[in-house]
Amino acid sequence: MLINQDIPQIGFGPGGAGYSPKMQKKYKGIARYFMGAKRRVNYFFIKKHYVNAVVNAFQLGFRLLDYSSAYGNGTLIGEAIKKSGINRDKLIITTRVSNFAQFQHQVRKEFMTFLKNTHLDYVDILQFHWPVTEHYLDTWREMEKLKDEGYVKHLGVANCHPHHLEEIFKICKYKP
Length: 176
Known about the structure:
Elements: H1 21-26, H2 29-59, E1 64-66, H3 74-84, E2 92-97, H4 99-103, H5 107-118, E3 123-128, H6 136-148, E4 152-157, H7 162-171
Parallel strand pairs: 1-2, 2-3, 3-4
Helix pairs in contact: 2-3, 3-5
């Protein structure tokens, strides 16, 4: 339950700029090297379009930005928020803890990097991207600490089944 704040029914999820999991599988050896070089050149142009897409979404009236730290484009999100000229308190920013951060026990580190890269002081909603087996309960506890410290307004989950939620309910201080 959100107190004094409604979640817009429609949000904007820009995804990752230039991210393509297919590239890793499709290209091998020297071909991967050249495709990687091409990606670095293209990234300059992609970056501009990515930032503009987020700014345009804000200018069209979107106020919910749905993001994940797994995408690794936090600096672009920060640029877009600044470029949009919209007050931070008018936006609802949600991000997710990546599976990698859960496996490596780096939830706090990843989250603080996101805040630094986006030039934000807090996020409105923090979720984990997936309930990583044997890690998601520890991840939840770490997320609760971030909320206690004022870096997060609300906690949530993504991609959970009922049994995941039941386990979280057994140990949680804050319900998702």
